[in-house]
Amino acid sequence: MKKLLLSSFLILFGCLSFAQITLLHTFSNSDGGSIDGTYYGSAMPCFEFVSEPMGCYSFLNRQNNSIRFYNANFQLVKECILPASIFANGGYPEYVQIFGRHIINTDDKIEFLTIVYIDHSDGTMDCFSYIINEDGDIIHECGSDPIYPHSVHKVGNQLRAYGGEGGIVRIYSLGGNYNPSTMVTYTQPSSSLNPYPNPSRNTITLPYTLQSGETAQLRVFNMSGQLLETFNIGSDFDKIELNVSDYAKGTYIYTYKGVSKKFVVR
């Protein structure tokens, strides 16, 4: 009997740890009132959007229903294929909103919201939203009362998501461990056909050119031909930012798809 109870507890705990999102309360259109000073009733309220700063870019590809994630240095870090089940009745993804890595759950996987629209022959449309992680796993199905983009609100030390259809507001308690005092900042470099600044002793930008939809590997070598680093790159960007502060002084080469260029570390 004890073994059975223990097994049941472990199964329940495993389910909760995967999707730490809980519906706390629902406000209907007829309620009228305010949440943190924002009136709701006849229209959906607008709330402060909260996300974990990641320096992360996302690109939605509707041709194969995939999302590419790039880091702040423009390196392709993940390509997520959206689960086929969310398109079972037809439809297409229309929007992607990155939450972070620790807003919904405590793991290190990117969490994002996607909206799926389904057009009907009579001119009507259905809208569904899903919270998904970078592996394509559905964390939460919001259904036809969706969580809308830019609708995550911070209440004290708790993060909640608001959303609904027809003026209904659903408040969720999220189980992540993100600390909103943590900030990530970086500067956006200008474009160039050649490495810049060159020479450099800190960070150097390595430009590249790919055809639309292409991915490749960019490799960095020293003059002895030793491979130092390999980066995954994609056509959504045209550069990689390389930290060379630990490189020895000298000349280096980077290559991709038969192209070879030199840069100098001073």
Helix-strand sequence: HEEEEEEEEEEEEEEEEEEE
Unreliable spans are: 1-17, 29-47, 182-192
How is the main sheet built?
A: 4 strands, antiparallel
User: What's the helix count?
Assistant: 1
Whole-number radius of gyration?
23 Å
What's the helical proportion of residues?
under 10%
* Counted beta strands: 19
Distance between the ends: 70 Å
Mean pLDDT: 74
Estimated share of beta-strand residues = over 45%
Write down the domain tally: 2
Morphology: elongated
Give, in spatial order, the strands making up the sheet with the most strands.
1-13-12-11
- The secondary-structure class comes to mainly beta
Task: Give a written overview of the molecule.
The chain is mostly beta strands and 266 residues long. The chain has two domains: 16-174, no CATH class; 203-265, Sandwich (Immunoglobulin-like). It is 6% helix and 46% strand. It has one helix and 19 strands. The strands form six sheets. A four-stranded antiparallel beta sheet has the order 1-13-12-11, with no helix packed on it. It has a four-stranded antiparallel beta sheet with strand order 7-8-9-10, with no helix packed on it. A four-stranded antiparallel beta sheet has the order 16-15-18-19, with no helix packed on it. A hairpin with a 4-residue loop joins β4 and β5. The longest helix is centred in the N-terminal third of the chain and has 17 residues, at 2-18. The model is unreliable at 1-17, 29-47 and 182-192 (pLDDT under 50).
Structure keywords:
Immunoglobulin-like; mainly beta; about 5% helix; 2 domains; elongated; 4-stranded antiparallel beta sheet
